[in-house]
Amino acid sequence: MSEDLNREGLKALYEKALSFLYTDEGPTKYSLKEYNKIENLFELKEKVVLRWLITRTTGRLKNEYGVKAITAARESRYRCKSCGYPDVRALHLDHIQGKIEDADFDCLCANCHNIKSRKYDWTGKPR
């Protein structure tokens, strides 16, 4: 009986993680503690994205990113908004207006993010 409950609990955590990753209406927070229990069930790319999002939505960077960050990532379908580059290991969440409170985000690859960052400083003003 206990094993069935444990299996059901893990299944619920897995389904929540999939919803966190892939659905626009999914949860906007997912704890690292929950993720660690089911980490072995994911492909490498999913692991990268989950850790990336968890850090920014419930982890140490939540105050700098939060819900708007996961919304931007989901809307981009984890691709660079500028060039469409699909490798999640190179994706950044760009503060569109600079690092201001309640900023909006774009999902950009490292190259596009660096190019944009050379045009504008961290306050969003042209260089």
Strand count, sense and barrel status of the largest sheet are: 2 strands, antiparallel
The residue ranges in which pLDDT falls below 50 over 5 or more consecutive positions are none
Query: Mean pLDDT across all residues, rounded?
Result: 87
- CA radius of gyration is 16 Å
Provide the domain count: 2
The largest beta-sheet arranges its strands as 1-2
Structural class: mainly alpha
Series of secondary-structure elements, N-terminal to C-terminal: HHHHEEH
Number of helices: 5
Shape: elongated
How much helical structure, as a percent, in the residues? Answer: 40-55%
Q: Span from first to last CA?
A: 64 Å
Can you count the beta strands? Answer: 2
Structure in words:
The chain has 127 residues and is mainly alpha-helical. The protein has two domains: 1-66; 76-127, no CATH class. The chain has five helices and two strands, in the order ααααββα. It has a two-stranded antiparallel sheet with strand order 1-2. The N and C termini lie far apart (64 Å). The relative contact order is 0.11.
Key traits:
mainly alpha; 5 helices; 2 domains; 127 residues; 2 strands; elongated; two-stranded antiparallel sheet
Break the fold down into its secondary structure elements and pairings.
Elements: H1 2-22, H2 32-38, H3 44-57, H4 67-75, E1 91-95, E2 105-109, H5 110-119
Antiparallel strand pairs: 1-2
Concise overview:
By secondary structure, the protein is mainly α. It has helices at residues 2-22, 32-38, 44-57, 67-75, 110-119, and strands spanning 91-95, 105-109. The chain is 48% helix and 8% strand.
